[in-house]
Amino acid sequence: MSASAEAVPATAAARSTSPSALRFEGVSKRFSTGTLALDAIDLTVDAGEFVSVVGPSGCGKSTLLRLASGLSQATAGAVVTGDVRVSYVFQDPTLLPWRTVLGNVELVGELAKLPRSERREKALRIIKLVGLEGFERQRPGQLSGGMQMRVSLARALLLDPGLFLFDEPFGALDEMTRERLGDELQQLFHSRRFAGLFITHSVAEAVFLSTRVVVMSARPGQIVADVEIPFDYPRSTELRFTPEFAKMTGVVSAALRRKGKGELT
Ligand SMILES: Nc1ncnc2c1ncn2[C@@H]1O[C@H](COP(=O)(O)OP(=O)(O)OP(=O)(O)O)[C@@H](O)[C@H]1O
Ligand SMILES: [Mg+2]
């Protein structure tokens, strides 16, 4: 049986009971160069779902996220976002080097015109939440790569987004830091239950974080599997070493290997 056949019924049931934060309806994207990056994507992310996307390099994952954020427009189909705030976390932390940690996090509140005292109070609380208490007055150049990524996460959290878009946020980090941030991100998801769309090259990271893992084919990107991940939140770091976890990563990896769509549908 294919991974998608296992996964679809439970997902469909969840969809009927909660509003969608994000929906792709038959979405295709062809660039002006002629490249067809995405072909007929149907994908729904509901509030309280954390969906990871894995697929070969160049299959259209970043394109999918840019469409979701409105940075780019579909050439066919529709991208529908719910009435929620959207935050985008890039692979590069993209911090302002001359601003302190606090200044970088507060910037989003400044742009959203939050009153000064409110944005200061929120920024300090969120900096603590991502484990950076004591580093508020330091500048990005004085932080490690993992700490800079925490600042980037804090900045994205400031406005309490309903939809969180992540494009390989931990891709440049060493494995231990990456796992620690993964532990923290699923804790955040557990406590806030935003809708998440997370791009990664790591099958283990996708399975650890997500309620569902979507597998894409090589370009033009199509969805070839949609795998429900059954573990409860909060997830302990030890989950990664259980046979059940290995089984789920096996299902996703097998779908990735068989990414020719004819074999999976
Ligand atoms: N602005 C653009 N103009 C033309 N082609 C583009 C543009 N952006 C992306 N593409 C093409 O669309 C395809 C998908 O690119 P995309 O960046 O979405 O892939 P990806 O899955 O994120 O890859 P990676 O895993 O390497 O990050 C690629 O063939 C790429 O060359
Ligand atoms: Mg990409």
Structural classification: alpha/beta
Unique ligands? adenosine-5'-triphosphate, magnesium ion
Give me the CATH superfamily of the largest domain: P-loop containing nucleotide triphosphate hydrolases
Main beta sheet, described? 6 strands, mixed
Q: What is the number of helical segments per DSSP (H or I, 4+ residues)? A: 9
Distance between the termini: 10 Å
Q: Which CATH class of the largest domain?
A: Alpha Beta
Q: Give me the Rg, rounded.
A: 18 Å
Tally of strands: 9
Arrangement of strands in the largest sheet: 5-6-7-3-8-9
- CATH topology (fold) name of the largest domain: Rossmann fold
Shape: globular
**Percent in strands:** 15-25%
Average pLDDT rating: 88
Spans of 5+ residues with little confidence (pLDDT < 50)? 1-17, 260-265
Instruction: Tell me the number of structural domains.
Output: 2
Q: In the CATH classification, which architecture of the largest domain applies?
A: 3-Layer(aba) Sandwich
Keywords:
265 residues, alpha/beta, Rossmann fold, 2 domains, six-stranded mixed β-sheet, three-stranded antiparallel β-sheet, 9 strands, 40% helix, disordered N terminus, disordered C terminus, binds adenosine-5'-triphosphate, binds magnesium ion
